[in-house]
Amino acid sequence: MFGYVRIYKPDLKVAEYEHYQGIYCSLCKQLGKRYGFFARMTLSYDFTFLALFRMALDDRCTGFQKGRCLFNPLKKRTCCCDNDHIPFAADAATLLVYYKLKDNIADEGFWKSLPTRFLLPFAAHARKKAQKRQPELEEKIRDCMEKQAALEKAGTASIDAAAEPTAQMLSYLSAIAARDEKERRILERFGYCLGRWIYLIDAVDDLEKDLEEGSYNPYALSRGLKVGDTKALEETRRYSLFTLNACLAECLAAYNLLTIRRFDGILRNILEQGMPSVQKQVVAGWTNGIKKGEKDRSA
Questions:
Q1: Is the pLDDT of residue 181 over 60?
Q2: How far apart are CA 204 and CA 219, in angstroms?
Q3: 54, 23 in Cβ contact below 8 A?
Q4: How far apart are the C-alpha atoms of 25 and 43, rounded to whole Å?
Q5: CB 56 within 8 A of CB 262
Q6: Least crowded by CB within 10 Å, which of 176, 200, 231, 263?
């Protein structure tokens, strides 16, 4: 996962933001506790969403408490009390980071991939720990990532085929939390559409960079894009909206069928405002408030 599943802070209530921050901080602590200090560097919004989503479906709520943060020791921060969902998200994040690093090494040249090669042994050590805790999850993530690598190596131009492994992986991750068959089917569909959206928004975000570097991108192949064709690049970004909006709509349709026991305001903020806001920025060619191809003038 790539950090696109975010809150839209301006419209989030203060109490809801405190709860979101509490889950975010708790995931950071759990990564450090289970996999070491450097594992905290892999913290992402996407796996915060996974923990939040699983907690929202649970009948139990362990609550929140104040605690110290290693990175901000002078001020107490809101953190989750112990529950099963934060460790699960930490395990899933650790497994995916390992396979993502391997994928990056395969995609990049030797010299460019040197920083990633340096990190891989640490990620491999953490992955072994996570595999012992989540053997079935590790097998599923490995299988999906291998299928993804095979599709990219084959240079498939099909956007649907390229997004399928990530969609299947998120479908599995979401359905693990199901308590009955009906809920399992809904969660599978929710996760499938979410995974598809994540893969495609990442492809759109990386489109210009992939073109310049000659890296695989299904939009570039399916649309026959060439380096320097700015008009075609902008048209492709707009074209991507049809599929991205369809994925978001199906995510929300599935979400509305679920029984959400808590954090509905935060989850709706992410699905109805946060993700559409990210999508709007990416399609417009912006990342973190900076137009692609332009320097940050504030630097």
A1: yes
A2: 7
A3: no
A4: 9
A5: yes
A6: 231
- CB-based contact 225:219 (threshold 8 Å): yes
Closest CA to 293 of 280, 285, 211, 282: 285
Burial (0-12, 13-18, 19+ Cβ within 10 Å), 166? buried
User: Which residue in 39, 257, 231, 203 sits closest to 130, CA to CA?
Assistant: 39
- Going by C-alpha positions, the residue among 37, 173, 35 that lies closest to residue 98 is 35
pLDDT of residue 152: 92
**190 class by beta-carbon count within 10 Å (0-12 exposed, 13-18 middle, 19+ buried):** buried
C-alpha torsion 79→84→86→92, nearest 10:
170
Per the CB < 8 A criterion, the answer to whether 197 and 240 are in contact is no
Give yes or no for a contact between 237 and 283, defined as CB atoms under 8 angstroms apart.
yes
pLDDT tens by residue, 281-298: 999 987 544 445 443 322
User: Percent of the chain at pLDDT above 90?
Assistant: 74
Rounded-to-integer distance, Cα 199 and Cα 297, Å: 30
Chain-centroid distance, C-alpha 109:
25
- Three-state SS at 61: coil
As given in the structure block, the two tokens for residue 132 are 């012992």
DSSP 216-268: --HHHHHHT--TT-HHHHHHHHHHHHHHHHHHHHHHHHHHTTS---S-HHHHH
- Contact call for residues 78 and 25 (beta carbons, < 8 A): yes
- pTM for this entry: 0.90
Strands 64-69 and 72-80: antiparallel
Q: Which CATH number fits domain 9-288: 1.10.600.10, 3.30.310.10, 3.90.180.10, 3.50.50.60?
A: 1.10.600.10
